[in-house]
Amino acid sequence: MSETIVLYVGSDGSDGPPPGDHLLSDADGQVLRRETVAAAKATLTDRSVDCLVTAYDLPDGTGTELIGHVREVDPDTGCILCSDASRDRIDTEADAGTTHVAEFVRTDSQGAATRVGQLVDTTADRRSQTAYPLPQNEDERLAALERHDFDSERFLSAVRRLTDVAAAHFDVAQSSVNLVTERTQEFLACHGESWDATTREQSICTFTILEDGVTVVEDIREDPRFADNEFLEELGIRFYAGASITTDDGLPLGTVCVYDDEPRAFSDDDEAFLELLAAAAADWLAILRELAEGEADRSNRRADTDGGRGGR
Amino acid sequence: MTRNAAAQFRFPAGLSVDGVDPGTNVMVGGPSGRGAREVALRLAMAGGEDEGVVLLSADVGGRSLLDRAERVTGGFDRARVGVVDCSGIEDDQQRFDEHGRTIDDPGDLLGIQMEFSVLYETLVERGLDRVRVGVFSVSSLLAHADLRAVSRFVHMLTGRVIATGDLGVFVVDEAMQDDRTVDAIERFCDGAIDVRDGTDGTFEARVRGLGVEPYGGDEAEGGHGVEAGSEHGAGDEAWRPVSTVERDQQRRRP
Asked: What is the ipTM of this complex?
């Protein structure tokens, strides 16, 4: 896994978080220190962070304003607000009457530094402020994603054909093959419109990879998990069916999905066919990986042989 | 202060699990919403004198929740119990503001977290080794905030329980929630206790996860199964009668 990156906003000795030097137990972690909302926002434009630790009173705004910004641009980021201000002074409301969700530590409590350290560790390591459940094997799943070459033109051609087959078989205008990465859903191939990546909390596939078998949402508007989902609304999706693309050792990497702009039913036979397509995508991935590993082995052997000859 | 990190959190008698490790989160739901609240309250209050309790009271006023806890447990030391009253109830007799200010809006999740955090540190500073956290109930929070926000809030609280080695108890009233919502909330927890109505006004409970072997029947996959669970029949061996002080007292009355 990559190193933990904490964005620390405030200045030592103020009403803000405990000194940034003690935030991380992970020696390989990195603390980015900023003092203003503007500087923090600029950092978040350039990169993702695992955890935001912020004071409430900042020279050009507030910590809750910054938390609201994080939820817009990178919603899975863990947020910890540190302050000794009373609740009266802290504006807890986000836009349009909704509320912020963030950890809170009073800086004048005895155990503040310890508590912030504990919360940073857990929030970053376990990604415990996502609005969706994570698969139990999420770390292994993410490691498996890194072992595959999803940019391979052979693979992309194959999955483009799968989306064509899916759309024709189910008589829908839109189908796709997707990857579920750490924070996003990427559309590798689309039949119909080309769609841009979305956050995981807007993605149905992030729920699909939690389950064995096929996930069917016959009517998006009737499912409380997705009824208020702006992304799906924007794309005009009312029906969804998705099957996981799973490695031989059971790690779900992505999905094969079909969509419709009106509610519809999905039979057992339909589910079986969609699972076949997902299995075909998984087979392609496995074959290409074996080919790549075989090629790497051959290269290594050639290098060893050449090195051996050179040494004589 | 040395926290009692290794010892298990003891469960009340009558459940098929004696206790769980520190850092465990449990959802309490099932077909009987009233039963779930009662079992969860017993679970939250079952700690010894070295354990603190923080209750988030969104269903009813904080004072009512404490009174219920008193009835269900037969009494406890109030110095080790804190209540975040986020019910929004305006009745001064029901509001509980001994340790902090009440939250007027149950959907104010950051306000709730702030009060929770302050109460938590107060209990730790009093020398209590560890804390049982009870959310009464996730369903009431969902009535005032959207599922995405409440999911993030529950996930965050379960993460805090793991970070601090405490016990989290989350009540979901399945009569108020769609199955898919209940399933999403349950996934943030390590296991679940389902509660249903038994005979003669009693409750029955079964434990899923938390080290309990899956039982047979069509619910073996771990679904919360409101409909199936409400029927007595297949898989009944997993259900156990739950006795409560209040009910025992009622039965003893002439």
From this structure: 0.91
